[in-house]
Design brief:
Blueprint lengths: L2 H7 L5 E8 H13 L20 E6 L8 E7 L2 E2 L7 E7 L7 H10 L12 E7 H11 L15 E4 L14 H9 L5 E2 L1
Parallel strand pairs: 2-7, 5-8
Antiparallel strand pairs: 1-5, 1-6, 2-3, 3-4
Length: about 190
């Protein structure tokens, strides 16, 4: 793995941004992620699928079409995420999060009655840390992309053709809730 290879994989100078999300918002994000899975016969392309840390595990029930796709059996540290709907979680995303998916999103919203999750109202703070620099430092410490450094296929996300019994949470946070969440990241779990 060379620096040139790495810059092709990560061509943008993204910084790491921290978002505070309630459990219900994280569940909505997982449902949104399920709708972004490439389906049989679709062309490859950037859809904005998010990869999470190994502590968050779930299945994706595809349903008969994209609008029926949902996250199923979501667990964080082995506990059902649905049992912590009001708990605050600190989640890191790159600053270029989902920018490349904008053309795909625009097409899907017109084509299907799909409600994708907007991130513009999430409380956020930019760290000023560059994703590439942090990942290169991690790779250098572990002398490559290695199992010891965390690289492994561990089944944290599984796509299932048929949707098991689905439970989703629909919640639209008010502006006051979001402002309050930004001021008080108390009892926040980092994932």
């Amino acid at each position: 793995l060379t620096y040139g290879d790495w810059f092709q994989i990560m061509p943008y100078a993204d910084t790491i941004r921290l978002f505070w999300l309630k459990g219900r918002d994280l569940l909505r994000l997982l449902d949104d992620n399920a709708m972004r899975v490439r389906r049989t016969g679709e062309q490859p392309g950037e859809r904005g699928f998010v990869h999470f840390s190994r502590e968050l595990r779930y299945q994706i029930g595809l349903g008969s079409d994209r609008s029926e796709a949902h996250a199923v059996d979501a667990k964080l540290h082995g506990e059902p995420l649905g049992s912590n709907l009001d708990k605050m979680y600190l989640v890191a995303f790159p600053s270029h999060f989902r920018h490349l998916a904008i053309p795909w999103e625009a097409g899907e919203i017109v084509r299907l009655p799909v409600l994708l999750t907007g991130i513009e109202h999430w409380p956020v703070r930019d760290t000023g840390l560059f994703v590439r620099r942090e990942l290169l430092a991690h790779i250098a410490i572990h002398r490559g992309v290695t199992v010891a450094g965390g690289a492994r296929c561990d089944g944290r996300v599984q796509v299932v053709a048929e949707s098991p019994v689905l439970t989703t949470v629909s919640h639209s946070a008010s502006e006051n809730e979001l402002v309050e969440a930004e001021r008080t990241p108390i009892d926040t779990e980092v994932i």
